[in-house]
Design brief:
This protein is of the alpha+beta class. The chain contains 8 helices and 18 strands. Strands 11, 12, 13, 14, 15 and 16 form a 6-stranded mixed beta sheet that branches. It has a 4-stranded mixed beta sheet with strand order 3-6-10-7, with helices on one face. Strands 8-9-18-17 form a 4-stranded antiparallel beta sheet. Strand 8 and strand 9 form a beta hairpin.
């Protein structure tokens, strides 16, 4: 079957890339607390129906018990998540019975297009030098095309699968929705992933000017000292913390300071000490660290820094999560799926099988921690995620389809 898969992929690779380009050309941006994914989902639904799948079409609000689920987080940056006209689409390919089933979980939503594009345009789907450009090309719309082509290949080759194959394309992943697993991994097989905390750090002070000589608590100075504390906190945890074996080639945990503000944005507002200042942050952690653990340690370090300076002593920073804490998680390393993935790579012969922890936070924890179904993260290579000139490697899309077809054949027959 492996030889037949490769021959079919060689003959249909251009069609795969064209499908990926077509999906990139459809904007599916998330604009919290809502999003514009419906047109892209209609495209995916049509492709599933063409392949003969049983298709379910629903919004997250249609799912009984969703809001009571322990992992559900109803707000995004303090606003209620809205799912009107944001459908999930699930295609089921029924097996003959008695085999193991597999779920391919992908997300169709993207971050906003942004500006500053040079090599491509956000929704142009241009292909240059083996790179397909566009918002969501790398993260992670194009991988949907790879898996659909893997299924088309198996069906046209007459593969007799006993287990079911389920493909889902979901909305509301990018801003902490925890709805989709597939992410770009440069074709590395990732049975584990980091966790992450996104939040605003807020420091309050005394607004105005001290015409009577009184001392005002200055949130600008406090936030400056907080940044010093954050950098020391980050250096210390990366220097002294234990690194799980799957992350030995990329042990550093990132801590991003994304946005800073306070006192307004116009000259007319700059009339004295602001009432508060804020900093938006994103930090990643290894599996085993809880949100409470991280928050407590970070705030304690910041408080020590503030209290060490008479000008900021006593000011109390607040950490305000914008989305749920995303816990790190992993699947068992002796799971038979990983062995069959290794076989799939070895039979391909042109890609080394590399097992590693995914160097990012993602939604695989929903499966690993809240269901009996373990999740492995696998996706194409590329660059520019969440940035101008995002691109995916076209060769990786084709090889992802080859690997997916091989694995499904081995797992579900």
């Amino acid at each position: 079957m492996d030889g037949a898969i490769d021959a079919w992929m060689d003959a249909h690779a251009d069609e795969l890339i064209e499908m990926a380009r077509a999906l990139v050309r459809i904007p599916t941006e998330s604009h919290p607390p809502t999003g514009d994914e419906e047109a892209g989902q209609r495209f995916v639904r049509a492709r599933l129906e063409e392949l003969g799948a049983e298709v379910d079409w629903f919004t997250p609000d249609d799912v009984p018990g969703l809001r009571a689920h322990p992992a559900y987080f109803p707000t995004i940056n303090g606003r209620e998540r809205l799912f009107a006209n944001r459908p999930d689409v699930v295609g089921t390919f029924r097996g003959s019975g008695g085999g193991r089933s597999v779920l391919v979980s992908t997300h169709v939503d993207t971050v906003p297009a942004g500006s500053g594009w040079v090599e491509g345009t956000p929704f142009g789907g241009e292909v240059k030098d083996g790179r397909l450009y566009g918002r969501g090309s790398y993260d992670t719309k194009c991988a949907v095309a790879s898996h659909l082509f893997a299924l088309r290949c198996l069906r046209e080759q007459g593969a007799d699968l006993r287990g079911d194959v389920i493909v889902e394309s979901v909305v509301d992943e990018e801003y902490g929705g925890s709805h989709g697993v597939l992410e770009p991994t440069h074709l590395h097989v990732c049975p584990a992933h980091r966790g992450g905390r996104e939040a605003y750090l807020r420091v309050r002070g005394d607004a105005g000017m001290a015409f009577g000589g009184e001392k005002l608590a200055d949130p600008v100075l406090a936030l400056a000292r907080a940044i010093i504390a954050i950098k020391d906190f980050d250096r210390t945890r990366n220097r002294d913390g234990a690194v799980p074996a799957l992350y030995c080639d990329e042990p550093a945990l990132p801590f991003y300071l994304n946005q800073i503000g306070g006192g307004g944005t116009t000259y007319e507002e700059a009339v004295g000490t602001p009432a508060e200042c804020y900093l938006h942050l994103w930090a990643e952690v290894f599996e085993g660290t809880t949100g409470e653990d991280f928050d407590r340690a970070l705030l304690a370090r910041i408080q020590r820094e503030l209290d060490a300076d008479p000008d900021t002593a006593g000011q109390r920073p607040e950490l305000i999560p914008t989305i749920r804490f995303l816990p790190g998680s992993s699947m068992p390393l002796d799971h038979p799926a990983l062995g069959l993935l290794r076989e799939s790579y070895e039979s391909l012969g042109t890609r080394a099988f590399r097992l590693r922890g995914a160097p990012f936070a993602c939604d695989a924890y929903v499966f690993n921690l809240y269901s009996p179904t373990p999740a492995v993260i696998l996706g194409p290579g590329g660059g520019g995620a969440h940035a101008p000139d995002e691109y995916v490697l076209t060769a990786d899309l084709v090889d992802l389809a080859r690997i997916s077809a091989r694995f499904i054949w081995r797992w579900c027959r």
